[in-house]
Amino acid sequence: MNIRFLLGFLLVFLLWPGAQMPRTQEISTCVPVKTLINTVAAGTDIPVGASLTDVLPVNAFACNRTLWNKGGAPIRCMSKGQGQPSATKGLLLGAGEQILFGTEGREAWWCIRATGVDSLVVTIEGLP
Questions:
Q1: Which one of 24, 58, 64, 73 has the fewest beta carbons within 10 angstroms of its own beta carbon?
Q2: Angle, CA of 54, 59 and 60, to the nearest 5°
Q3: Nearest-5° angle of CA 41, CA 46, CA 50?
Q4: Which domains, and CATH codes, for the chain?
Q5: From CA 123, how far away is CA 69, in angstroms rounded?
């Protein structure tokens, strides 16, 4: 084929309306400007014992959430949509450990003690 023909075809393709290269989408980021502490316990530490304890409610607007086992005993936690935690099932948080969720943590979460000792949970939610 003739090189001029190919260059002409390429030029027509690039200038043709709607034939432009795809553009990248902007990723909207969630920037927290307000913080809520222990929303399920009106600001006080949340005791976690032998029965299931709500620790985070659903919040479709949270930018990030922190779940912190402030107590001295291990606990297990799960999102409510995933099931019920037990002494052997769920996310294990040892004494003093914490997990930071991004926007994927907007679901409701509950916890239960993993041993025979109760513990305390602190939650922090960053809101836009």
A1: 24
A2: 150
A3: 125
A4: 30-127 (2.60.120.770)
A5: 9
